[in-house]
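Most newcomers find our protein records easier to grasp once they have seen one. To make this concrete, we reproduce a full record directly below:

===
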Amino acid sequence: MGLSSRITFSLLVVLSLIISSSMAQAPGGAPTSSPPTASPPKATPAPSPAMSPPPAPTPVPTPSKAPTPSKAPSPSPAPGAPPSKSPAPAVVSPPAPTPESPAPVTPSAPTPEAPPTESPPSAAPGFSASLRFAAVGSAVIGAAALFL
């Protein structure tokens, strides 16, 4: 009976190793196998172009500048009625909102850039964590096989 239980647990160890290797190939593509290594480089360039568009929208937060022109047209009708008095206040009010606009744009720019750069590194630790989990599981099963 002891021999059959050892054989059973050794088969479980082999199955767990097979499952862990197949799971390791699915999320990150096993770097040891040559055919799966060909597919991960294809997946790697895809995130790079995906990361390129987010930086483009980040420097282009010109919507804050768009409200400045919208404020400019509102003083424009005022110069239409009294042309001499309105131009002076119109010149004074746009410079004040303009310095306030760049300040909100700057904090919003680093915030969107931070998550894309954090996403690729978080994928790599998840991959190593799955390998660690598989190694610990197979070690526990192996130890149980030795004791039984």
User: Anything to note?
Assistant: Residues 1-51+126-148 form one domain. The two ends are 10 Å apart (CA to CA).
